[in-house]
Specification:
The chain has strands at residues 11-21, 26-37, 49-60, 63-72, 80-88. The chain is mainly β. The chain has one domain (11-88).
Length: 90
């Protein structure tokens, strides 16, 4: 749905990721992502490219903690974003 709530447009992308296990419970990954938004609103339209570096620690078989950063690879992407997360299987 377009930002104005009327009509539809194409939004698509692709991503790739390489993950490396530092130990049985600690992993790091490097990823790249490109998105395309063909919204008719020129302030939304763009093709941001992002790179990401993250680390995850699995404290037990049901809990994982993540820390990372996204880096903008072109002008259409934010310069830098940090993220953190917790995943719990139940």
């Amino acid at each position: 749905m377009n930002d104005d709530g009327k009509g539809r447009h194409a939004l698509y992308g692709g991503a790739t990721e390489v993950e490396y296990s530092l130990s049985e419970t600690l992993k790091t990954d490097l990823s790249a992502q490109v998105l395309r938004d063909d919204d008719p609103d020129s302030t939304v339209r763009g093709t941001p490219a992002l790179g990401s570096l993250a680390i995850s620690w699995q404290s037990d078989s049901n809990t994982q903690f993540d820390l990372g950063t996204n880096l903008g690879l072109n002008k259409a992407a934010p310069d830098i974003e940090a993220f953190a997360g917790v995943s719990r299987r139940f």
